[in-house]
Write the structure tokens for this entry.
Amino acid sequence: MDLQLHQLRAFVAVVDAGTFTDAAARLGVSQAAVSRAVAALEAALGARLLQRTTRHIALTPTGTRVLAGARRVLDEVAHLHRVTEQARTELRVGYAWAALGKHTRRLQKTWTTLHPGVPLVFVHANSPTGGLAEGVAEVAVVRRALDDARFATALLGQERRFAAVATDNTLARRRSVRLRDLARYTVAIDARTGTTTLDLWPPDATPAVRHTHGVDEWLTLIAAGQAVGVTSEATANQNPRPGVAYRVLRDAPPIPVWLAWWTDDPPAHLDDLVALSRDAYGR
């Protein structure tokens, strides 16, 4: 059995993106290359992993089990690359949705004054670890607790929750809204990297859900009036979008914000980064 990493990456990308076309765009290769890689993986394993139709793909029972293993393999390979690569000349901070919101630019300016030879670079990574597990970043901004002993975290502060609605929605005329105001709409939720769950709503006011896969898809649905959303204050600051209005959500709990890094390999200048980030949120 001759498994190759690019086959696993293609398989995981197809599952995460939802289509071969979108997976190819994420990987920067052709759709045909993705199809060949997945087919080769199925041939190597001797099992069908995906059910394909002209409009939809779905995991087979075997594919579901293989997916978990594929993610672990790719995570560990990324970790090996990260451990063995030479020290970089920049500190990369990963994030899945909104970096540090309104604090991002100010933090970078202050950092440049303190560490002029080590640029602080924010990189987007649509993963629960903000790119840590994938080797995209040395530190990550996360807004969901990481229950994984491989990663250490430091709490920076909290952010208010905002509702996101289409600008022609009647809720956009208000300065603030409540959770029950949103319950009659379909709510767009990114279960993999987002911060919104149905637990926010009372049992008698649970909205319908439309699952999304990242901030851009989430914003596109809301701008079209096909859903509403709940998100952090940082998203409202970092991701303005024509057609989308952000309004303060009065009755929702705040969102904690952490910095995370590999427990066994904290990056250089980590203490400065944590201190500066906490100071920004403290202000």
Remarks:
- The longest strand covers residues 151-159.
- DSSP finds nine helices and 13 strands in the chain.
- The mean pLDDT is 92.
